[in-house]
Amino acid sequence: MTLYYGMQDTACDYVGGYTLAKSLEWSGQEDFLAAPLEELPFGGGQTQAADGLTWVQAEGAGHMVSRSHALQAFQLERQ
């Protein structure tokens, strides 16, 4: 599951999204919490991923990350 958050989104802020991702109770929670925050290899922003959960903070994106940053979203899904 990938949770995308644009840093210019005024409806669903990335700080709250990150808090949500860290608070999910599931079998991979410990691995996700231990995984490092990494810079996105393209487009700017950060990502954290483990055991099938990926959180993405995209610079310059609003509410529809996959629409405004389609190439970057596509590349993330292909990783």
Could you name the key traits of this structure?
globular, alpha+beta, 79 residues
Explain how this protein is built.
By secondary structure, this protein is an alpha+beta fold. Helix content is 37%, strand content 24%. It has four helices and four strands; from the N terminus they run E-H-H-E-E-E-H-H. Strands 1-4-3-2 form a four-stranded mixed sheet. A hairpin with a 2-residue loop joins strand 3 and strand 4. 24% of the residues are buried.
Structural class call reads: alpha+beta
Put simply, the count of helices is 4
In the sheet with the most strands, the strands line up as: 1-4-3-2
Strand runs, count: 4
- The first-to-last residue Cα distance is 13 Å
N-to-C SSE string, H for helix and E for strand:
EHHEEEHH
Overall, the morphology is globular
What portion of the residues fall into strands of 2 or more residues? 15-25%
Which bin fits the share of residues in helices?
25-40%
Largest sheet: 4 strands, mixed
Subunit arrangement of the protein: single chain
Can you lay out the helices and strands and say which pair or pack?
Layout (H helix, E strand, L loop, with lengths): L1 E5 L7 H10 L5 H6 L3 E2 L5 E6 L2 E6 L6 H4 L1 H9 L1
Parallel strand pairs: 1-4
Antiparallel strand pairs: 2-3, 3-4
Give a quick precis of the structure.
With 79 residues, this protein is an alpha+beta fold. The protein has helices at 14-23, 29-34, 65-68, 70-78; strands spanning 2-6, 38-39, 45-50, 53-58. It is built from four helices and four strands.
